[in-house]
Design a protein that fits this description.
2 copies of one chain form a homodimer. Chain A is of the alpha+beta class. Chain A contains 6 helices and 11 strands. Chain A folds into 2 domains: 3-133, PurM-like, N-terminal domain (60s Ribosomal Protein L30, Chain: A, 2-Layer Sandwich), CATH 3.30.1330; 140-246, Alpha-Beta Complex (Phosphoribosyl-aminoimidazole Synthetase, Chain A, domain 2), CATH 3.90.650. In chain A, helix 2 (60-77) runs parallel beside helix 3.
Amino acid sequence: MSEQALIDWIRKTAPRFGQGVRVGIGDDCAVYRPARGEELVFTTDFTIEGRHFERPAYTPREIGYKAMARGLSDLAAMGAEPRFALVSLAVPDEALVKPLMRGVFAHGVEVAGGDLSWSGKIHVDVVACGGVPRGKALLRSGVKPGDVIAVTGPLGRWKKRPRPRLDLVERIRGRAHAAMDITDGLSIDLDRMLRASGLSCEITAAPPVARGATLEQAWHHGEDYELLVASGKPLGEGFYEIARAVEGKPGSPLPPKGWDHFR
Amino acid sequence: MSEQALIDWIRKTAPRFGQGVRVGIGDDCAVYRPARGEELVFTTDFTIEGRHFERPAYTPREIGYKAMARGLSDLAAMGAEPRFALVSLAVPDEALVKPLMRGVFAHGVEVAGGDLSWSGKIHVDVVACGGVPRGKALLRSGVKPGDVIAVTGPLGRWKKRPRPRLDLVERIRGRAHAAMDITDGLSIDLDRMLRASGLSCEITAAPPVARGATLEQAWHHGEDYELLVASGKPLGEGFYEIARAVEGKPGSPLPPKGWDHFR
């Protein structure tokens, strides 16, 4: 199958929203028309064979699914709703393109563009774009003294088919002061959020531990695909308090352990 | 140097526009606030070692420069001005990150986000975002019968340090009916533009040939980083007419030859 035939298949098969995207796959660029008062948020993540997954432990479809899940988790962490994605694939075999893209499409997000090329190992780069009302994006730096800091589910267990917490966007937007997704481990991500906000915290409770995981893993494991949220009052069911923000030397009192791509 | 230290260096060193980008590197997502009446255009291109370049023929800085040039050329082809870029790097050695990014920064475009990871070969994925007044993006599909089809410079010679034709954006926007950049060879790109527009053409002149190239190369070579533009009247100096659009079987009468990543 030629590159053009694969692009035509992607264009025909990709989910459509019919909102905002004026021109999708097939021109030099995709064209997006923002709604009135809309701000856009963007995240990009590489998902690389030998680094983020191995074959055949992951099927091509699972790889595509996870690559998109990573971007959507970042959108949820900003309080944003998905608008479209750009998906760049470099693959050793063109037969991988369709199953990889089927995994991407499973999230139901419009794919407005991308690139297709050859590489000895699978490299997927997903850019996810989300929309949020002007000024309402939830940053890491928004924590206020006295805030409850909570996580959104049990932690510590690696997930093959993670569910980005887009279901929480409406509940946290306008109510939380800050949010981020837990990708490199709760302890390191908590430290990052507090540093960004110039605050410290007191640990008030252990995080909920996923079935089959240890408390150590819940604190220091990565790829949890849950959110870390700070707010002035409790957010209700499904949010598990772990700390309270206080003035002090910026950062978490826990030793941060986590994932660094070059260590 | 740790990943975090490299990200801090990128954040400090990247060019800033101070326009539109509300949150850049360092949060889960970048945040962009569109101007009133602004549409955004997006393009993404992989630049891969062993596929798009070899070392040491290209230095890391030249690789970064070219990776960004490819995206900016697509913005020019839409009649768009650069707003920001997202740059994802996967490298075999962290010492490559700074020179690669210096090549990216040489274009003066704000880098609002990206990803940094490890791979056995250099993979750079650049997303370029441009702005254009609402409804004014130049598509491939806009050619009208009778249009002059022109190229913007001599073709056929591979360029190590290509210059994206952003200098032409003001001249073509609002005057051209259609535009695209010549990346896979004039003959194949002309065919694509005419098919997208449902038209055929009559060839009226040979394209200008770059010094050291042949006419065959000018027609069928790729990576020219010039634009193919269709308009109702001549666009003036610096535009070289090659064809006139006519009704007929969609496509170019020339046999399209060009680059297909899987052939």
